[in-house]
Every structure is written in structure tokens, then in C-alpha cells.
Amino acid sequence: MINSGEAGWDPPLPRKPGALLAVIALVLMIAATGFGVYELNDALGKKYEPKADGCMATDLGALSTLTTDAKPDIVRDETSASVCRIQFVRADGTPTAFGLVTLDYTGSRLASRLQLASHEGDEQWTTVAGLGEEAWQSFTPDECSFQVAVRDVNTVLRVELSGIPGEQLCSASNADAQKALTATAKATLARL
Questions:
Q1: Given pLDDT bands bounded at 50, 70 and 90, which one contains residue 36?
Q2: Are 172 and 68 in contact (CB under 8 A)?
Q3: How many CA atoms lie within 13 A of 68 on its CB side?
Q4: With b meaning 16 or more CB within 10 Å and e meaning fewer, what string describes 77-105?
Q5: Tell me, what CATH number does 139's domain have?
Q6: Based on the structure, what is the number of domains in the chain?
Q7: What are phi and psi of 29, to 5 degrees?
Q8: Torsion angle in degrees (nearest 10) through CA of 110, 116, 117, 123
Q9: Residue 90, phi then psi, degrees to nearest 5
Q10: Is residue 169 located within the same domain as residue 95?
């Protein structure tokens, strides 16, 4: 046989990974999955469990300072278990202010973010620092209407209060009313 000068070379076939490399890859996959679940649980976290009666957790003490001669009355709304109707009534039966407290427990932090975003509407909201993970408030002086909406982990709390024109609540300063609403929301979240 004559050598033509052309050399032929067949590279060796790649080896299959050994058992040790397969075990290392499996451990890395389990660790990455565990870390991912931990991070996802934080993003979709859950802190509050639904209460049987959210109305009883509502603390109206701070709002009572705006209507000194009227006593608060709170009742669950017949149409929704998450809504409570509030009314401040004088001893003679005259109402001075009324509103709603809405307490929604969502399945996760992400769901509560979406729920709070749906509350934006047409109101002119301002951000409130130090209340839950996210909070907004609004004031409509023409209608003597005050609102605060708070998101804390998997819960969205919204307090709305309107005064009857000429009553004490409508003559209160915007800062006093917003401070009372913020204190009400903070105290209610602490009771949940």
C-alpha cells in the first residue's frame, strides 16, 4: 500500500458525562429551584388571613376627633362582606358624616398591587409615606370628601369619609382630616 501523504484523523467521540457531573447538575438545579420559589413567595407573599368580621377590626377613634359631638356607628354592608358602612350620628339622631371602609384580602402581594391600582380612578391621589407598603390619599373640598387607600402585602384597605355640608368635618382642615384618615388606616391594619 502506498502512502499518498494524506493523513486521516478521526476525532474521538465525546464522552458521556459521568455520574458525578450528573449529581452536581441535579444539586444545582434543586438549589436554583428552591431559591426561585423563595423569591417568588416573597413577590407573591401573604401576611394577613381573612377575618370573619373586618368591620370589628376597624378603629374609628382618630376619625371621632373630627366629629367630637357625634358617635361612630359601623355596620357590615348587605351586598358585600368586605365593605363596612360608617356613620357619625349625634345624640339627637342627626348624621354628621358617613362613609365606607373596604377591606379586601387578596391571594398574594401581586394581586393586592393590581387591586390598589384599580382604585386610582379620576381622583387626584397623593402618596402617603410610612403606611403599609403603598398608600395614597385624596381630598375633594367641594364635596367634603376624604379617602385613603393602603396596600400592605396581601391586603387592600380603603377608607372613604364624606361630611354633611356645614358640619364639623367639612370645616376641619385638610391636614387634620388626612391625618385622622391615616391614623385610622394605620390602627386598623395593626388590628388585622
A1: confident
A2: no
A3: 3
A4: eeeeebbbebebbeeeeeebbbbbbbbbb
A5: 3.40.1000
A6: 2
A7: -65, -40
A8: -170
A9: -75, 170
A10: yes
Host domain of residue 32: 16-45
67/132 same-domain check: yes
Classify residue 36 as exposed, middle or buried by CB count within 10 Å of its CB (0-12, 13-18, 19+).
exposed
pTM of the full predicted structure?
A: 0.70
Q: What is residue 88's three-state secondary structure?
A: strand
**DSSP H stretches of helix in 60-137:** 61-64, 109-118
Residues facing 152 on adjacent strands = 155
Summarize pLDDT for 53-98 with one digit per residue, the tens: 678 888 888 888 777 778 888 888 888 878 999 998 888 888 888 9
Residues 6+ apart with CB under 8 A from 70: 64, 88, 89, 90, 95, 96, 97, 168
Q: Which amino acid is at 3?
A: N
| Percent of the chain clearing pLDDT 70 (strictly above) | 84
Say if CB 151 and CB 133 are below 8 A apart.
yes
